[in-house]
Automatic annotation (TrEMBL):
PANTHER family: ABSCISIC ACID RECEPTOR PYL6, OS08G0374000 PROTEIN-RELATED. One of its GO terms (biological process) is abscisic acid-activated signaling pathway. One of its GO terms (molecular function) is abscisic acid binding. It is found in: Cytoplasm; Nucleus. This is Uncharacterized protein. Signal peptide: none annotated. InterPro entries: Plant_def-hormone_signal, Polyketide_cyclase/dehydratase, START-like_dom_sf. Belongs to the PYR/PYL/RCAR abscisic acid intracellular receptor family. Pfam families: Polyketide_cyc2. The keyword Acetylation does not apply.
Amino acid sequence: MQSLATMSLFTSPVEASPAMHEVMRRYHSRHKAPGQCGSANVQYVAAPLPVVWSLLRRFDRPQDYKRFLKGCRLRAGDGRVGSVREVTLVSGLPAGTSTERLDALDDERHVFSFSVVGGDRRLSNYRSTTSLHEGGGGEGTVMVELYVVDVPPGNTEEDTCKHNHQSKSSSEKILTTSIVTGLPNAS
């Protein structure tokens, strides 16, 4: 099995610090099993890390930065590790809901991880880990996300990863837009 964390993630001029390498080793070292695909996405957000983290860490408000989500409600827990949320997707997508469990939330290292545990999305064994790192001299944030998911029957690894990558690109664009336009951060 290939570790996704061994992929060359830093294709931009952002310099990876020793602290970033430690977070990558600790949280982003999932292995792809046969029948799975995965990807590592790296994006620079032109906003300070505390601002980006204040949006991302809200397990109950993913629609604040993911435009393909219509809404969210907590089904169990209070937003801490182990909480379960049900997200409603906008119409036009091949699914209507997704049930997700918060697996990790590290405010010190700025790491957020969740798994899809139900719903009508075709995301069996989907696991995502996102970490944030200071970039741009403290004026920006480097967002690293790694995900792994089973390839659905009848699909190819390439098609599955392409679909997930397009969804991620959309959510990342909205994250940047939300921060720049000052989207309210509901408390």
